[in-house]
Amino acid sequence: MSDDDWFESAFEDEDATGSASEDGDASADFSEDIDTTADAFEDSTTQDAFGADRPDEAVADSTDAFADADTDEDVPADDDPFGSDDDPFASEESGAGGSLFDDDFASAMQSAGPGGDEAGEDFDEAAFESEIPRIDLGISGLDEMIQGGVPERHLMVVVGAPGSGKTTFGLQFLYHGLQQGDSAVFITLEQSRQAILDTANERGWEFDRYEAEDDLAIVDLDPVEMANSLDNIRGELPQLIREFDAERLVLDSVSLLEMMYDDQAKRRTEVFDFTRSLKQAGVTTMLTSEASEDNPYASRHGIIEYLTDAVFVLQYVRGDTQETRLAVEIQKIRNANHSRATKPYDITLDGIDVYQQASIF
């Protein structure tokens, strides 16, 4: 298989294994539409992400391009992820007088009132003005922590440990856009296309219907194949996004792509060029990334957070009772005012709910 046919082959595989059901036929028809688009690029050759030969100096520059980038704040290095010497769960109570860790956790979170600096930030939305078009993520509670919304066409990453809800975060982000009439693309390197459909449909998000109506494309790629074909993918993906008229895109996960490169310099260069091509495509993109084993605030390879416009950190927090809770923090969003508080959240059949008025401590 030639490198140029990476997108086409992803959908041909679906046709070969699809069922004779009406939904399967609709998916196959949609695949043929994407194949037609992909064929338009068969005669193109890409020397780099932008269709031109690059001198060695340009590669060297891109290798270290992320080194000078800065985030909104330094990443804490303490063993305690929240930088506190005190027991964070010692005597915290909700506004209703009950423990935050009663059996009915959701009720406790909803009844918890403001509690100082950690209780969230109140934004004066009436006074907020911006010439930058902005969007909501579709994550209940988290959107309220971002004044005015995330700027359109931002490249974002959600970093977290296994099971913290990264894939759900991405699916919920796409679903919110689909509800508003946006077109969307979901690229998975970890699961099959059918597994993604099943996960979304179980929550009542009707991804199969959106796919049949050509509003959604779900592409499952082997990470090795993607790494081997990355030059062509990097050149073709922006135009394919424009042809599909996609407003939102999710790649789950960038960590698997990073793992395909043993050489650190090569990894940095390839990831840098890939993220730059996504920005040029003009689509609002959400990447997912595994967290570092040593630092829950950093990605596995410590690269992607420097190349993105926004970073959301999902992590586990354990109290002295050994009861584990999930917490989210907005590490940075360029051109946006946002809360820096760490907030608890739950993953339910309705998706992710963030309790922005509650304190995790």
UniProtKB/TrEMBL annotation:
UniProt-listed NCBIfam families: KaiC_arch_3
Organism lineage: Archaea, Methanobacteriati, Methanobacteriota, Stenosarchaea group, Halobacteria
The keyword Mitochondrion belongs to this UniProt entry's keyword annotation: no
Disordered: annotated segments: 1-121
Biased composition (Acidic residues): 1-42, 67-90
Database matches in Pfam families: ATPase
Top-level taxon in the UniProt lineage: Archaea
Identification of the protein by name: RecA-superfamily ATPase implicated in signal transduction
MF (Gene Ontology): ATP binding
